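This section describes the prediction task in plain terms. A model, or a person checking by hand, is given the sequence of a single protein chain and must write out its three-dimensional structure as a string of tokens. No templates, partner chains or ligands are provided. The sample shown here is typical of the held-out split.
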Amino acid sequence: MKIILDLDTGIDDALALAYALAHPDLELIGVTGTYGNVPVALGVRNSLALLELLDAEDVPVFTGPTRPGFSVAPISAFIHGRNGLGEVLLPPPRRKAYEDAVGFLLRSVREYGEDLVIVPTGPSTSIAAAMREDPDFARNARIVMMGGALTVPGNVTPYAEANVFQDPQATDYVFRHAHDLTMVGLDVTLRTLLTREHTKQWRGTRTGRIYADIVDYYIRAYKTTSPHLGGCGLHDPLAVAVAADPSLVTCLDLNLRCEGNGRTIGDPERLNDPTTRVAVAVDDARFVDDLMSKLGSLYTSTSTC
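The expected answer:
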């Protein structure tokens, strides 16, 4: 299965990127950059730098649109660090990103069709833009998005999860027009947790040490914002995992809408013929074990010392 990641590259995006590269059933054909945890330009830079670290410089990166007036929320800077990677400094990337993420998305769906899955892990801005430009994209794209909250509170407001809160109009457009959409939201991602006992296992290699430093920052932030969890949520990596193996989650078939305040909820006007699946339960132990196994192997294979 070919996969495109639409990332606002902060810490859990960095994990999603590594996991997609490590997964034998996925071929990462491109990364598109959006905003959220960091501005578009910084997220694109982070993606390029991480792909170099992970020996994947052949994966193209594309710059996507931003939202007028966007600025990083203080809570995002606290959770991900000002540079999006827990203040861990990576060498400047040796290559530059391409322009026109939306064009890349449209071309890829036309070329690969059902053999492609798109995983947005930030606001739905780029995905909605592609749908508006070409209705065939909405009909043919398979999308597994990280975002939203149906059965649990939001993490920005009592109703809104961070990604949908950034651009609720785009999320609503995607909900109303997508023909094959899975929402992997806080309902399940907050049940999949990583701790410092996990990251300690990565410290035997150079790449693993870098990732452990990045993720330990995330874990410390969660200890302040959500001490009851006992670890950090694996939001974006879980969406990648579900793209590869839908059996990891139990879903409700439910057409959704996104209200202006970022609330994601069932759409009473479209109760029949649902096109969206909402993940409401997850085999968290199987997922975390798989993530640790695949990332451990990847970090070993990409480390020189």
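For orientation: The chain has 13 helices and twelve strands.
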